[in-house]
Amino acid sequence: MNRYTIMKQLGDGTYGSVLMGKSNDSGELVAIKRMKRKFYSWDECMNLREVKSLKKLNHANVIKLKEVIRENDHLYFVFEYMKENLYQLMKDRNKFFPESVIRNMMYQILQGLAFIHKHGFFHRDMKPENLLCSGPELVKIADFGLARELRSQPPYTDYVSTRWYRAPEVLLRSSVYSSPIDIWAVGSIMAELYTLRPLFPGTSEVDEIFKICQVLGTPKKSDWTEGYHLASAMNFRFPQCVPISLKTLIPNASNEAIQLMSDMLNWNPKKRPTASQALKYPYFQVGQILGPPPQYLEKQAPVKPVQPTEPKPSLPKLEAKPEPVSSPDLHDKTQPQPLPKVNHQPLQQIQLPQNTANQQVPKQQQPQALPLFPIINKNSSPVS
Question: Where would one find coiled-coil regions in this protein (predicted)?
C-alpha cells in the first residue's frame, strides 16, 4: 500500500470503505476498497465473491480490478477510478439524450453483461449507480459484491438488486432465478435513459409489482405459470390492469428501441432475450460505430495479488456510519463515488394514462431521503 497516496474518503459501508488514491509511480487515480473484517490468509481473500468474479472478468465494459493487496491482515482492492456513474449522468441532464447516445451506452452495457454471463456469472444488482462512466462515451459495469456463479446451486437469497430494477420473479420470492434478472434490470435502465425517470419507482415490494402491472398489464397465467405459483405461495393476487404501450410512455424512443425494451421487460424470465441475443436486435443494426472510443481501449493486465512485507501506511480513520434498521433493501455502500446532491427519487414520475383496474394501486408515499454513494451504493431506492 505504500505505492499509493490516500487522497480522500469516497464512501463507507457495512463491509468496507472506499478511498480515492493516487499511484506514487504513475500518478494514476485509483479507487481503493478497504474491507473492514480482517483476513488471516490468502485463501480467505480469494474466496470472496467479488474477487472470484472480477479476477476472471477482463473486458472494456467491466470495471478493472487492478490488484488485490493483503497487508497486516487487512484486505484492499485497487480499482481503476471513474469520476461518475450513470445515475449522476442522468441527474445532471437538462434535456433528453439523443437516441444515438443511448444506443451506444446500451451496446456497451449489454456487451459487458454478455461477457459476464458467458463467463458463468450473473450480477444481481444492475442499476444506474453500478454503471460507471466517463461521460456517455464509456460505460463499465461495477460492484460485484452480489454476483453469483451461474453454476452455483439454488436456493439463493431472496434479496437481490435495488427495488426499482428488481425482476418480477425476485419480487415474488423465487429462489431459483438466474441471469434473466439482469436483463430485466437493463430493460428498466434503458427506459430510464430515454425519459430520465425511473420506469417502476415502487415504494415497497408490493407497490413495485403494482407499478409493473400498471405498465405491462396483468400477466396471463398461460404466459407465466410459474409466476402465478409464486404469487399463490405468497397469498398475492395480481391486480387486473390493461397494458400501456411503451411507445405512449416513451415517445422519444424508436420502434426498434421499444421492441428491445418490451422483450427485455417480459414477465416470464424464460422469454427474455439473453444479452448476446439482445445485441443482435435491429436496434443495434444501424450505420453507427458502437462501443468505447479508441482512446479508452487499452490492453487489460491480469489482476495482481500482492502480499507486501512493508508495514501498512497510515490511513485516515474511517468510522462506520450507523446503519438504519435492518431492511432487505439496505445493502453495502462500498464503491467509489462522490456524494450526489439528491436521492434517486424522480421529481416527477412518468405520467401513466388512465388505466382500468379492478384493484387500486396503493398510493405512493414520499420516501425518506437517504444518503447515496454513487457507484456502489445499495440505497438508491427508498426503503420499504
Answer: none
